[in-house]
Design a protein that fits this description.
Radius of gyration: 16 Å
Largest sheet: none
Helix content: 40-55%
Distance between the termini: 54 Å
Number of strands: 0
Oligomer: single chain
Shape: globular
């Protein structure tokens, strides 16, 4: 009799279901992927396997390399898109109870 492995691969909960209102490392990867049009802004990555997130991170990293990893080096259209996405994310996270000052204090 064969025994089946009942452990399912861990899947990502999606940026809007993530801790801290999506203000996590994975959330940042997704937001940056939106900026660079690697995925549509409607894609929350809910249900993605870790390998998919890692692959997306690699693509995002390659895009940032082109700009020296600096927002100030982005062309105007990408910088404006970045700021819009970030501002929306901060507002949504705060509405979900995220407090950036508390998180910083917890690190000290």
């Amino acid at each position: 009799m064969t025994q089946r492995n009942s452990a399912q691969p861990k899947k990502y909960v999606g940026i809007y279901n993530d801790m801290n209102g999506g203000m996590t490392d994975t959330g940042k990867i997704i937001r940056d992927a939106w900026v660079f049009d690697l995925i549509p802004e409607t894609e929350t990555c809910e249900g993605w396997l870790p390998q998919g997130i890692d692959d997306l991170w690699g693509k995002v990293n390659r895009e940032w390399e082109k700009y020296g990893f600096l927002v100030s080096n982005l062309p105007d259209d990408l910088r404006e898109k970045f700021m819009r996405i970030q501002d929306d994310a901060v507002q949504r996270a705060r509405e979900a109870g995220w407090d950036p000052h508390r998180d910083l204090e917890d690190e000290h």
